[in-house]
Design a protein that fits this description.
heterodimer; A: about 575 residues; alpha/beta; Flavocytochrome C3, Chain A, domain 1; Methane Monooxygenase Hydroxylase, Chain G, domain 1; seven-stranded mixed β-sheet; five-stranded mixed β-sheet; B: about 400 residues; alpha+beta; Ubiquitin-like (UB roll); Fumarate Reductase Iron-sulfur Protein, Chain B, domain 2; 3 domains
């Protein structure tokens, strides 16, 4: 039975950074992922990573922009940690080998990004996430003696000791179907968000809320779950993301009349206002009949105003995406886009060291909510979040491991339970619905009723639908009865994870009776700091899934910036 | 180049190569008909079949936008990302209109369309010391390096490790030990990185390995297979050039002299003279090469092949004894290419990362970098001067040499 000081679940940027940090501190590390690490969805992050590295910049300016971007729901102590440590982290990555784009002087170049008061985004063309992820994986290969890799292992549940301490995980090797218990002094969840609960979404098919749901099921509270980011520029049909870097390089947004409509809602920042603001402005144009394309369901993103050579050099990936996925040469003509689900600000509640309220359990990256993004994340802050808090969680977990012994826990009951759960799914009769049908209905429901604009009626209806889907999922059937690469049965487990995430999202969205950040309630259109400047926590409170989600609150930490009206 | 994206859904028939390792049975074909708009991807078609008809179809996939590198397969026999191949294009290239989807080649199949990349691809990646061996001391801030150098290595950084090039590598098919296109492109990512301290050691290692940079046979398959324009073969050729020209590394496996024999013979005769190739490859690039002991041994070994060729009429005695001839005007034209290339003061490279487009970049004429011609990283640090980038069609979507 494998045993590690630190077991990391998920091998995107947060997980790999945590693994390297923990190993650096001398801990024995295992990192487990249901896909090969370089397939992790961090790979799709395009635009860049924010850090106040310019001599004219100050991390406090970055922090203020982030606080304002969060619509003052972000915890300022955590934001200060992230922004003040950002320059050092970015330099560390450069030294590791990331091929950051240079300026004429040979220094790192910086590009403009939404919600930022100056150019602060370091980048590698528009494949920044890929470059970071692959460079970190180079380091994992280099440190293969101190970091054990479990690639293509699917975690089914967290292992809990009788004292309520997290002490490992149960997982299934995808290739063989073998179940295995991993004991660990600490577990770090780093397995991303839950975008697949939406349809369409920019997120990959693997982004199914596994970590959020597993933590929730063992009693960890989820925070800010109502805050779901819609990215302003996604391809109309497929939902594929066009990087904010395009607007950072100067691209315009145009409605059917050819107007740069952003001047109505963000006269100063225009297209580079924060994402929630831009997505709402686009949705208003579409809703009021000024959209473009079939059914007026789109908006034009005009990249032709960017010099062509600059586009080819710095936005090469979206030139390819436009050509291959929309049949448009973006250097010659505008491309049709719309807002699309992209990121969840919420997640498992943690402190600045990645600790959840459950001892031995940490979380970092999109799975976690520190909360540095509050009501709305700024572009190019997510890569930073994964790396800063991945590293901090890795370091803290390694230090904690040094002071305690390996937990002695009877793993057999948990192993048997998860094995039986899988056997039961495989054996289900073909009576109910297919997993794929339920997943589809869940995604469409969320995208219709828990999107850019929300109201009580829509949210209640979504909650009702989710309740029904939850029951149907218990009986949903699959085709694959094998053990080797049975993706079908894993899909059924993922469906359960997504439903839990969706339910927490809707319950929190119903609870917050105001409009802030990504949550815009048409029935409560104002921000109400008096009552709602607080986090909403959702937990199972020890009642298990049957008891349903419980709501509580926690305060927002304010250090230097008092809430003020948000204008771009 | 905008396509009509408002066409209604059509029916597409997929023929999937299935393999269930648990059944004990052989691989078999499985057909499904799906309905999707023609510009949708082969991956979406496979997923529709999986969602609606048979959830046991095995395929790795995640991002659906050609960045995660999971869904490498063969479509109608050619390696591709399933998410990056349009249904209408796949159907146009299909026999009898049925789109054939198989697992990638050169790697063992685990199940259906899923191959064992660890056993082949990742093992080879690890062979090339795939991490930066940074120059010391590490600066407090970033390394100061040229913009061009970083853009240049970003082309290989853009490799998504999908394995399409490995799938189709002919050299690897013959010699499974060949380090191969993906791993050697990864090697260039460090060799070309001015922050790396071990350029010579890396190149020497890859040149001395009989399955290293000189094992590539210039077949262009990887160039064609790569969905991200990484141009693996071009990167291998650059590794060779830097090894030979900048570090004077002698290839123990004769690949370098073999290449010189090719270019020398064509310079002399305007066309290849096969019979003289072995002597020159082993004995040096002159007519006297055949008297070198190593050449004598190789020549002796090739006698049975030569006799077979003579008997079957594929070779003639005159062809063996005398070079083939082409009209003298043509010979002059060929030789003028050599003169032009060899008279260049420095070596220039096409950088497809910037100019991987189907038409010239407007600003290209007075700016070599804009034309996608970057200064070779291994050379001197001076910016390119006096370059005539128009010698290469700027933005040509072709390989760097061949």
């Amino acid at each position: 039975m494998p045993a590690h000081d630190v077991l990391i679940i998920g091998a995107g940027l947060a997980g790999q950074r945590a693994a390297l940090a923990a190993a650096q501190e001398g801990a024995s590390v295992g990192i487990m992922s249901k896909v090969h690490p370089v397939r992790s969805h961090s790979v799709a992050a395009a635009g860049g990573i924010n850090a106040a590295i310019s001599v004219d910049d100050d991390w406090r300016s970055h922090a203020y922009d982030t606080v304002k971007g969060s619509d003052f729901l972000g915890d300022q102590d955590a934001i200060e940690v992230m922004c003040s440590e950002a320059p050092h982290e970015v330099m560390h990555l450069e030294h590791m080998g990331v091929t950051f784009h240079r300026n004429e002087k040979g220094e790192m170049d910086l590009r403009a990004f939404g919600g930022a008061s100056m150019k602060r985004t370091a980048y590698v063309a528009d494949i920044t996430g890929q470059a970071l992820l692959h460079v970190l994986y180079e380091q994992l290969m280099k440190h293969h003696e101190t970091v054990a890799r479990y690639e293509e292992w699917f975690t089914t549940s967290l292992l809990m000791g009788e004292d309520g301490v997290c002490c490992g995980a149960i997982a299934r090797e995808v290739r063989s179907g073998r179940m295995e218990a991993f004991t660990a002094k600490n577990v770090i969840l780093a397995c991303g968000g839950a975008g697949q609960a939406y349809k369409p979404t920019t997120n990959g098919l693997i982004v199914t809320g596994d970590g959020i749901a597993m933590a929730y099921r063992v009693g960890a509270p989820l925070m800010d779950m109502e805050m779901v980011q819609y990215h302003p520029t996604c391809l109309v049909e497929t939902g594929i993301l066009i990087t904010e870097g395009a607007r950072g390089e100067g691209a315009h947004l145009l409605n059917a009349n050819g107007e740069r409509f952003m001047e109505k809602s963000a006269p100063n920042k225009m297209e580079l206002a924060s994402r929630d603001v831009v997505s709402r402005a686009e949705q208003i144009e579409i809703n009021e009949g000024r959209g473009v394309g079939p059914n007026g369901a789109g908006i034009f993103l005009d990249v032709t105003v960017v010099p062509r050579r600059r586009t080819l050099e710095a936005l090469r990936e979206i030139v390819n995406l436009g050509r291959d996925f929309a049949g448009v040469d973006i250097t010659r003509e505008p491309i049709m886009i719309r807002p699309g689900q992209h990121y969840i600000m919420g997640g498992v509640k943690t402190d600045v060291d990645g600790r959840t309220p459950i001892e031995g359990l940490y979380a970092a990256g999109e799975v976690a909510c520190v909360s540095v993004h509050g009501g709305n994340r700024l572009g190019a802050n997510s890569l930073l979040d994964t790396l800063i808090f991945g590293r901090r969680a890795g370091e803290h977990a390694a230090a904690r491991a040094a002071g305690i012994g390996m937990p002695s826990v009877d793993v057999n009951a948990a192993l048997r339970a998860d094995g039986a759960m899988i056997d039961a799914i495989v054996a289900r009769d073909r009576e109910g619905r297919r997993v794929s049908e339920i997943k589809s209905e869940l995604g469409e429901t969320m995208n219709r009723q828990v999107a850019v604009f929300r109201d009580e009626q829509g949210l209640q209806s979504a909650l009702e639908t989710i309740g029904r889907l939850k029951e149907e999922a218990e009986r949903a059937w699959i085709d694959d009865r094998g053990t080797v690469f049975n993706q079908d049965v894993l899909g059924a487990i993922e469906l359960g994870f997504m439903i839990d995430c969706a339910e927490a999202t809707v319950v929190a969205a119903i609870e917050r009776k105001e409009s802030r950040g990504a949550q815009f309630r048409t029935d409560y259109p104002e921000r109400e700091d008096g009552e709602w400047l607080k986090h909403i926590d959702i937990s199972l409170n020890g009642n298990g899934r049957a008891g349903g989600p419980q709501v509580s609150y926690s305060p927002v930490t304010i250090t230097q910036w008092q809430p003020e009206e948000r204008k771009y | 180049m905008a396509e009509a994206h408002d066409r209604p859904p059509e029916k597409f028939t997929l023929r999937l190569r299935r393999y269930d390792p648990e059944s004990g049975g052989a691989p078999y074909w499985d057909e499904h008909t799906v309905e999707l708009e023609p510009h949708r991807s082969v991956l979406e078609a496979v997923l529709q079949a999986k969602d609606r008809f048979d959830g046991s179809i095995g395929i790795r996939c995640s991002c659906r936008q050609a960045i995660c590198g999971s869904c490498g397969v063969r479509v109608n026999g050619e390696p591709a990302l399933a998410c990056h191949t349009h249904l209408d294009a796949a159907k146009a290239g299909a026999r009898e209109g049925v789109i054939e989807i198989e697992p990638m080649g050169n790697m063992p199949v685990i199940k259906d369309l899923i191959v064992d990349m660890d056993a082949v691809h990742w093992k080879k990646i690890q062979r090339v010391t795939p991490w930066l061996l940074a120059k010391q001391p590490v600066p407090e801030r970033e390394y100061i390096v040229s913009k061009e150098a970083m853009v240049d290595v970003t082309q290989t950084m853009a490799c998504i490790q999908c394995g399409a090039c490995v799938s189709d590598c002919l050299a690897m098919e013959v010699d499974p030990g060949f380090i191969g296109p993906a791993a050697l492109a990864k090697a260039y990512r460090f060799v070309g990185d001015p922050r790396d301290d071990e350029q010579f050691e890396r190149l020497n290692d890859l040149a001395q390995d009989p399955q290293g940079i000189f094992d590539c046979t210039h077949c262009f398959k990887c160039v064609q297979a790569c969905p991200k324009d990484v141009n693996p073969m071009g990167q291998i050729m650059r590794l060779r050039r830097i090894a030979i020209d900048d570090h004077h590394i002698v290839d123990q496996n004769n690949g370098e002299r073999h290449e010189a024999a090719f270019t020398g013979l064509i310079k002399d005769n305007g066309i290849l003279w096969e019979a003289e190739l072995i002597p020159r490859s082993y004995g040096g690039n002159s007519w006297f090469g055949k008297f070198h002991p190593a050449a004598g041994k190789e020549l002796l070994n090739s006698v049975p092949t030569a006799i077979k060729g003579l008997l079957r009429g594929k070779m003639t005695l005159t062809g063996i004894l005398k070079p083939h001839k082409i009209p003298s005007a043509d010979l002059k034209a060929v030789q003028s290419i050599y003169d032009k290339v060899e008279s260049r003061p420095e070596r220039y490279e096409l950088n497809l990362y910037i100019a991987g487009e189907d038409e010239p970049v407007e600003e290209s004429l007075d700016d070599p970098v804009a034309a996608g011609v970057t200064h070779e990283v291994g050379g001197s640090e001076a910016p390119p001067s006096g370059a005539q980038p128009t010698d290469f069609p700027p933005g040509a979507n072709g390989p760097q040499e061949g």
